[in-house]
Amino acid sequence: MDKAQYMKMAAQYIVDADEDEIEKLAHAYLDEGFDPVEMIEQGLSEGIRRLGDLFDRGEVFLPQLIIASEAMTKGVNILEQALPKDQIGKKRARVVLGTIEGDVHDIGKGILVTMLRVYGFEVIDLGRDVPIATFVEKAKEHKADVVGSSALMTTTMVGQKALEKALKDAGLRENLTTMVGGAATTARWGAKIGATFWAETAGDTVIKLKEIFS
Ligand code: B12
Known about the structure:
Elements: H1 3-15, H2 19-31, H3 36-56, H4 62-80, E1 94-99, H5 107-118, E2 122-125, H6 132-141, E3 146-150, H7 158-169, E4 177-181, H8 187-193, E5 197-198, H9 202-212
Parallel strand pairs: 1-2, 1-3, 3-4, 4-5
Helix pairs in contact: 1-2, 1-3, 2-4, 3-4, 5-9, 6-7
The structure holds cobalamin (B12).
Cobalamin binds near residues 103, 105 and 181.
């Protein structure tokens, strides 16, 4: 089977919320020697986005979304094991990362954590639904170089703005790179709230951070 075919099937199995098929497909894909990141970003993520649109239109309901998320997590876990282990002794930078207050969406954040670790960044993963004060506290405690927040909902992305302010108020912002992302956000939003940068995907985030910490 060619790579495009794998991507198509991965997306479809996520829409179908079929964990068993995802598992089989991920193993078969890796056996062919294809790039795990491509399947995460172009296959599985495409499927979950498509399902989100169906959910939006009322064509699928929350239970299917939950089962599909579990299938997605399973697939990502299998593919992640095939990623090269971080070979870099000295870390490029220390990143404090979490999904913002009120928001439980953590699939994308989880992918980002893995990708950053693979590329030699030290990551302190705060998890999901993280209070603004915790980001600030952990940034201080770990002497972070970067603070990143993920937001998937229009109702929670305002927390990213509050985080920028809280970091400023704590006197930390000047010495930090801040980054925002998640499906609710845009480059315009990132610029508007004064974040150092916004990125669309985990891959783009790695590229931007590598430029800053080369
Ligand atoms: C899966 C999913 C769920 C799962 C989440 C499981 C989990 N553990 O994450 C479940 C079923 C639990 C869920 C629940 C809910 N959901 Co939901 N969900 C989704 C869905 C379909 C996909 C999200 C996803 O995982 N995408 C795939 C990942 C890989 O993409 P990503 O997160 O964008 O991440 C990538 C990039 O953005 C980037 N990135 C991510 N984070 C960061 C951070 C930084 C710093 C950077 C630089 C980059 C970066 O890198 C990632 C990899 O490339 C979206 C639809 C959509 N189009 O987004 C709705 C969606 C986000 N959900 C929505 C809603 C409404 C809800 C609920 C309120 C539903 C309900 N009625 O209860 C609850 C939320 C509860 C809460 N308080 O948070 C709405 C939000 C609407 C809005 N405009 O605000 C959406 C958009 C669906 C819709 N169209 O209505 N959901």
